[in-house]
Amino acid sequence: MPGEEHLSANLSWCLDEAHQFLNKSLGDEYTRYPLDAFDLIAKEGRKYSLSICIATQRPRDIPDAVLGQMGTLLVHRLTNDGDRKVVERAAGDIDKSAAAFLPALAPGQALLLGVDYPIPLVISITPPTAKPDSRGPDFQTHWRSRGDAGRVAVMKSDLVGSDDEAEPSGAPPEPPVDG
């Protein structure tokens, strides 16, 4: 249409762990500033060829304004009643039997719901060929390889009022002597 600008390509924005970012605000109780730009993007983004994909383990923490704009939901196993009720509201046409099925989904299964699906579909997600490495750092192994295991630098000032730093040792520090 004349006067309207549109992108020549679609842009999809994916937000993982969305419950950590949405429905938040900055400031204290007197100067609170809501971080609600994502609400606006969810409502108006389609006009500008912007689509969003959010992933969360806590649907109850996603603002209704955002969930109401989701056209398709891919819902894995949900056992929390609050989360299930939010999904029921967001999906609109989901019947109670489909919602009751959510806690019974097996690992790798999900329920596909949305305006383009006349009935909810149970789908299986193909596991990745290479398992993701979701381990955190192994500090103990690293410290052991450096020979630092069990060592703590202790400030002499913490023990006897001196400003000199004590050499680290494997033994716990001696308590100060009252005198």
Please indicate the percent range of residues in DSSP E strands (runs of 2 or more): 15-25%
Helix content: 10-25%
For the secondary structure, the number of strands is 7
| Discrete helix count | 6
Q: What is the H/E order? A: EEEHEHEHHEEHH
Protein structure class: alpha+beta
- Radius of gyration in whole Å, from Cα? 26 Å
Give average pLDDT, whole number.
77
In total, how many domains does the architecture comprise? Answer: 2
Could you name the ranges where pLDDT drops below 50 across 5 or more consecutive residues? 152-158, 162-166
Oligomer: single chain
From the N-terminal CA to the C-terminal CA, the straight-line distance is: 89 Å
Largest sheet: 3 strands, antiparallel
Strand order in the sheet with the most strands? 5-6-7
Shape: globular
Description:
The structure is a single chain. With 179 residues, the protein is α+β, with helices and mostly antiparallel strands. The chain has 2 domains: 1-70, no CATH class; 71-127, no CATH class. The chain is built from 6 helices and 7 strands. The chain has helices spanning 37-44, 64-67, 81-91, 96-101, 139-146, 156-160; strands at 11-15, 25-26, 33-34, 50-54, 72-75, 109-114, 121-124. The chain has a 3-stranded antiparallel β-sheet with strand order 5-6-7, covered by helices on one side. A hairpin with a 6-residue loop joins strand 6 (109-114) and strand 7. The chain is globular, with a radius of gyration of 26 Å.
